[in-house]
Design goal:
By secondary structure, the chain is mostly beta strands. The protein has helices at 15-28, 53-61, 150-155, 240-246, 331-342, 366-369, 387-390, 420-423, and strands spanning 43-44, 71-76, 87-93, 98-105, 112-114, 143-144, 170-174, 180-197, 200-217, 229-232, 253-258, 265-269, 272-274, 279-281, 290-291, 293-298, 301-302, 318-320, 327-329, 351-353, 357-360, 373-377, 381-385, 391-394, 397-400, 402-404, 417-418, 426-431, 436-441, 448-451, 458-461, 478-483. It folds into 2 domains: 49-272 and 444-467, Beta Barrel (Cathepsin D, subunit A, domain 1), CATH 2.40.70.10; 276-441, Acid Proteases (Cathepsin D, subunit A, domain 1, Beta Barrel), CATH 2.40.70.10. It comes from Cannabis sativa (Hemp).
């Protein structure tokens, strides 16, 4: 599944959008009255399974009022590149709530689930999960979002042509590989477990605006290992983190820690106070989580790189994206990096697999034989990647996870993007309140401490596991998704900010 969304504009009067307007107008008659509540729960896809290299590449190509102390979300996922890291959450939507399984994605913004109007959307999955098509008629708290509401105007960049009373707001989400989902926006309750003490939670909920998918094109989520949709944690005002923050439910902060060895880890919204994490500023005016990389070190040698190598076109900096499996580097970085790695063992029998993967047989310890790769960023922040993290096994060989973005399509040519390959086994903290991001090496199966912003109390949050259906060809690693919110839920409209 592509996690990065391409920048796009569209005419509200185009045939597709007009069609969606017709769909949403017809659905409007079925809308129920709205309350303002919310919830979540989480799981994962491939743990320990060795997929084809084609599957790996396909995954990446498509790919503050009163505050709650926290929200506890069981998460599924794996940071291992040979496990095609796809993290997904089990969330409850509606009243009464129904379960939906959605990919957790920091590279896109809109949360969406497949809707009852979708004729081509999957209804079955080989992952051992039950898929559900959202039907607003089944929820007493569901409400369509009008095309004249503030949320719709912001997402679509202004008024929509043909917007009249009782017409719902359409959405069109296009991902970097050209796949897409389209439908209309609704608002409904989403449920979560808020942190109420050390290793303790109580149930809470709040309302979120999300996409009700009526059509989809070429999405990996519609294949054999299908999911219900995507949970967007991107930077824009339409993302889940931004909506919760604008309604006063959370601080605009979250963190994840992906266990690349055993599977599992932590995903948290809120103020993590332990471990301490050094931060680097986000690059302003970029649609994703971009930071300024300053140098690349292989072993003890710094690569000689042009000063502007990480500023191609209008893309500034390096994208940090937990939803992407591998790591993509500009050609002038990729080639000397891979050459330096290979040169450590001159007798390697190197193969190029599928035209782009550098692979070789090696029977000894890769950590003893190959160099550590270290990336340096502004504010003295660095990210160290060990050989067992950037090398992954495939058919009796080891393959290098670094990818040459100079060989990608024109819209992604020579970008710099760091995915699960380098982010695993680190606690990564996103602080949008201060426009900064940081990380530290960490045991992702251990505990973290979070702060109750109202009382100043620090709560201990530890890993726990949720039950998971089994798949005949793989074991599932189960994760913890912890959403750290604020102390008492205030039911506020996420768009107007009015008290309910």
């Amino acid at each position: 599944m592509p996690t990065l969304t391409t920048s796009f504009t569209f005419s509200p009067s185009s045939p597709l959008i007009f069609f969606l307007l017709l769909i949403s107008t017809a659905a409007n008659a079925a809308a129920a009255s709205s309350l303002n509540h919310a919830v979540f729960s989480v799981k994962y896809k491939y743990a320990g399974q060795e997929p084809s290299l084609t599957a790996l590449k396909a995954h990446d190509d498509r790919r503050q009022l009163r505050i709650l102390a926290g929200v506890d979300l069981p998460l599924g996922g794996s940071g291992r590149p040979d496990a095609v890291g796809l993290y997904y959450a089990k969330i409850g939507i509606g009243t009464p709530p129904k379960d939906y399984y959605v990919q957790v994605d920091t590279g896109s913004d809109i949360m969406w689930v497949n809707c009852i109007q979708c004729k081509d959307c999957p209804t079955r999955s080989s992952l051992g999960i039950d898929l559900t098509l959202y039907d607003i008629k089944d929820s007493s708290t569901g409400k369509l979002v009008g095309c004249d509401e503030g949320f719709c105007l912001e997402v679509n960049g202004g008024p929509l042509s043909g917007c009249t009373a009782n017409v719902s707001c359409p959405y069109l989400q296009i991902y970097a590989d050209g796949s897409s989902t389209a439908g209309y926006f609704v608002k409904d309750n989403v449920q979560y477990d808020r942190v109420s003490g050390d290793l303790q939670t109580t149930s809470s909920n709040g309302s979120v605006i999300f996409g009700c998918g009526a059509t989809q094109s070429d999405l990996s989520l519609s294949g054999e290992e299908a999911l219900d949709g995507i949970l967007g944690f991107g930077k824009s005002n339409s993302s889940v983190i931004s909506q919760l923050a604008s309604s006063g439910r959370v601080k605009k902060m979250f963190a994840h820690c992906l266990d690349g060895t055993n599977g599992g880890g932590i995903f948290a919204i809120g103020h993590v106070v332990q471990p301490k994490v050094n931060m680097t500023p986000l690059v302003p005016n970029q649609p994703h989580y971009n930071v300024n990389m300053t140098a690349v070190q292989v072993g003890r040698t710094f690569l000689k790189l042009p000063n502007d190598v990480f500023e191609i076109g209008d893309r500034k900096g390096t994208i940090i994206d937990s939803g992407t499996t591998l790591a993509y580097l500009p050609e002038m970085v990729y080639e000397p990096l891979v050459s330096k790695i290979i040169s450590q063992q001159p007798d390697l029998n190197v193969h190029t697999v599928h035209g782009e993967y550098t692979c070789f047989p090696y029977s000894e310890s890769v950590d003893d034989a190959f160099p550590t790769v270290t990336f340096y960023f502004e504010n003295s922040l660095h990210l160290k990647v060990y050989p067992h993290e950037y090398l992954f096994p495939f058919e009796g060989m080891w393959c290098i996870g670094w990818q040459n973005s100079g060989m990608q399509s024109s819209d992604r040519k020579n970008l710099t993007l760091l995915g699960d390959l380098v982010l695993s086994n680190k606690l990564v903290v996103y602080d949008l309140e201060n426009q900064a991001i940081g990380w530290t090496e960490y045991n992702c199966s251990s505990n973290i401490k979070v702060k109750d912003e109202k009382t100043g109390t620090v709560h201990l949050v530890g890993s726990h596991y949720i039950s998971s259906a089994s798949h005949s060809k793989s074991k599932w690693s189960i994760f913890l998704l912890i959403i750290l919110l604020l102390h008492t839920l205030v039911y506020c409209d996420a768009t107007t900010k009015n008290d309910c």
